[in-house]
Specification:
Helix content is 26%, strand content 26%. α5 links the parallel β8 and β9. α4 packs across α5 and α4 crosses α10. The relative contact order is 0.16. Bound molecules: zinc ion (ZN) (2 copies). The site of one zinc ion has 7 residues, from α2.
């Protein structure tokens, strides 16, 4: 079968490899229906890498598929059923796993990053990583359950509401997912920063109330011109360290800052005193709320299909990666078994 292999820093190769086989009684083989390219896939391919990926693995951690084969101990699922996949496999015995923090497992065999993932025709997953999904929901939405689960889990920490004034940094695939989720949470005042004309347009399309084109205007000016006060909630969906010092100036007393974007190369200099004086809270977020995301996608108005810009075969995956790197793409969906009709 064909798969995209992460060969090492900067190199992703599509090639033929053997089909996966059931080796454990809880193993399941799925035919991959759709897989989405994540911003962290781009970070992982950067030099130096913004996130560690294990050389030799099948890349891609946001995917869904249809069950073709199951080990003897798998219960509650059927051959032919489409499932969503949680790529973070918990080891079960580290500190996090044994203290109700398994989402942060420090020994995780994360599919598509540290173990084989979903940019392939077939994938082997453990039954414990699978979720039932409404079979009527299109595959390009089900493939996005994983990033949505991360977004929902992070929003659960900061509980956005209709009375909050919210600033969101970033209008890439995750930023746009945040916009749709924030609207589902009832947020009415949302400023989004975007880089490049395409992304400004996409952010508006997705329902951002105000979009700041950072090449042309400053966030502070736009905020002051449009809002009575500062922001109650600031979300960083980019992961550059330079956002924090600015966020510090744009937040109301007792405001919340959510750090979501991840770039291990990012650095930041801030004045911690301001966080004390204004009782500002900073939240980091890495967890995944799959049940929450699976519930949200039942509502077609969530609109995760609004910002799919590229639909690709596995052979064309580099087209999507390049387009994301150049900020010409928002959501890129790869169909390893061929494009939908
Ligand atoms: Zn991801
Ligand atoms: Zn663990």
């Amino acid at each position: 079968m064909k798969a995209a292999i992460f060969e090492g820093p900067g190199t992703l190769t599509v090639k033929d490899i053997p089909m996966p086989e059931i080796t454990k009684p809880t193993d399941v083989i799925i035919k991959v229906d759709a897989a989405s390219i994540c911003g962290s896939d781009i970070h992982g391919l950067a030099i130096p890498p913004g996130q560690y990926m294990k050389p030799g693995i099948i890349y891609g951690h946001e995917f869904c598929g249809t069950i073709t084969e199951m080990g003897d101990e798998v219960q509650g699922f059927e051959i032919g059923e489409r499932v969503a996949i949680n790529p973070r496999v918990r080891c079960g015995h580290c500190f996090e796993c044994t203290h109700n923090r398994g989402d942060l497992c420090s020994n995780s065999d994360h599919y598509g990053q540290l173990a084989d993932g979903g940019f392939s025709e077939y994938a082997k997953v453990d039954a414990g990583q699978m979720y039932h999904v409404d079979q009527n929901i299109p595959v390009d939405i089900v493939a996005q359950v994983e990033p949505l689960a991360c977004v929902v889990s992070s929003l659960n920490k900061v509980t956005p509401s209709p009375v909050d004034y919210v600033i969101l940094y970033g209008a890439g695939p995750i930023g746009l997912t945040f916009i749709r989720a924030l609207k589902a949470f009832g947020v009415r005042n949302l400023i989004v920063t975007a880089k490049g004309e395409d992304r400004v347009k996409e952010a508006k399309n997705c329902g951002a109330d105000i979009v700041v084109d950072v090449a042309k205007e400053t966030l502070e000016d736009v905020m002051k011109a449009n809002w009575p006060f500062k922001a109650d909630l600031i979300i960083d969906a980019v992961g550059r360290g330079n956002i924090l010092p600015e966020a510090q100036k744009l937040i109301n007393p007792q405001g919340r800052i959510l750090l979501f974007g991840l770039d291990n190369n990012a650095r930041s200099e801030i004045a911690p005193g301001a966080f004390v004086l204004d009782e500002i809270s900073i939240f980091g977020a890495l967890g995944k709320d799959f049940p929450g995301a699976l519930e949200l996608i039942r509502n077609p108005e969530l609109g995760l299909d609004k910002f799919i810009t590229h639909r690709l075969t596995l052979d064309n995956i580099h087209e999507g990666i390049e387009a994301m790197r150049n900020k010409k793409a928002c959501r890129c969906i790869v169909y390893p078994n061929g494009l939908p009709e």
